[in-house]
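Translate sequence into structure tokens.
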Amino acid sequence: MVKKLLIFILTFLSTAYDFDIKKYEPKQITTVSSKESDIVIKDDNTIYFSSGRTGNFDVYKKDLLKETVTQITFQPSNEYPKYFDGKILMESDETDIYGNIYYLTE
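Result follows.
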């Protein structure tokens, strides 16, 4: 009942205020059974994400046009991608005397 009421209200609002209600179909980006987190969007065609598919979280790069995934980090600690000032960074949960944030270079 609530769902029907919500659809009615949205339909009414879109008609009354000339909103364009679009239906978006989700497209699956990852295809390996694992936990992913910390998604960073570099541009329209490239994303970076952390995945636990190797036992710990490593950073992966996905080319959305070619549908390819490349593992970027191979450390025994957990790594997560970050985006700052146009650069992809990596944060590690392993801290040493130098800290735990690194530039990712390809």
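Note: The helical segments are 2-16.
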